[in-house]
Amino acid sequence: MAFIETPKQTSEAFILMVDIRQTPEYAQHLTNLGWKVIKRSGIYYYTRKMPIIWSILKVQRPEKIDIKAIKQIIKEERVLKTVIEPKTSFQAKILEKKGFRKSKDPFLPTKTLIIDLTKTEKKLQNNLKKDCRYALRKTKSLMTKIVKPEEFRIYWKSAVSLKRHVPNIKTLRSLYDSFPSPHPLFLTSHNGEAGAIFIKAKNIAYYWQAFTGKAGRTSLAQYRLVWQGMLWAKKRGVKLFDFEGIYDKRYPNKSWLGFTHFKKSFGGETKKYPGVYKK
After folding, report:
1. pTM
2. CATH of domain 118-238
3. By the 8 A CB rule, do 44 and 21 touch?
4. What is the 3-state secondary structure (H, E, C) of 157-211?
5. What fold, for 2-106?
6. N or C: the chain end with fewer CB closer than 10 Å?
7. 59-70 pLDDT, tens per residue?
8. Same fold yes or no, 2-106 and 118-238
């Protein structure tokens, strides 16, 4: 059971969530990118060969911590470094008892924002903050389009500076092909000034990656893209919309403050994760 943690740290409201990284679709995606996928008792483990003869093992947001399975994989795959990102504080305590140490550099976002899509569209609109409602009114006539990964990447590279990382086409194409029912939504404004990728995995939709150029920031295009992504997910029966990361003062990164304000303008509840543990 994973708990939604509100700013007051209550655990009254809770929901069952299977993280995208524990789905067969995501496992296929990592296979395409060169990881070896091992499934034991319903849990996905990912290993990758490193220089010489050793491997790295990562376990991300599992439904349970199976120490016996982890030890077996470490032995079988000659694992030198194990990285586990637990789903709950209870799992974190298990890892601490087994000698895992908490790292200062988490791989996955340790705090996120989740919106309940089972609410009516009207209720979702009522939960929007003032600046979000303004942006959606301003972009009411903004034209958007669904594109393929190749076109999406072209827009992305054109919109951002050379210093910004843009995933290669192999990664984006693998993402698209690995989630066939439905394929991820690659959505852009009509002129490519902004874009966003939305993925459906089980009963959760993820605001996976996004870009906004100078013109897109001026036009507030990303607000319209996110709203359309939410409605796209809702029409497909998705129950939850995960913004996939907001600012967490436990791991302060000031560059996250801007888009955190943007994401929070859509409403929702915050959810915290313990972080990353290594051994």
Report:
1. 0.92
2. 3.40.630.30
3. yes
4. HHHCCCCCCCCCHHHHHHHHHHCCCCCCEEEEECCCCEEEEEEEECCEEEEEEEE
5. Aminopeptidase (3.40.630)
6. N
7. 999 999 999 999
8. yes
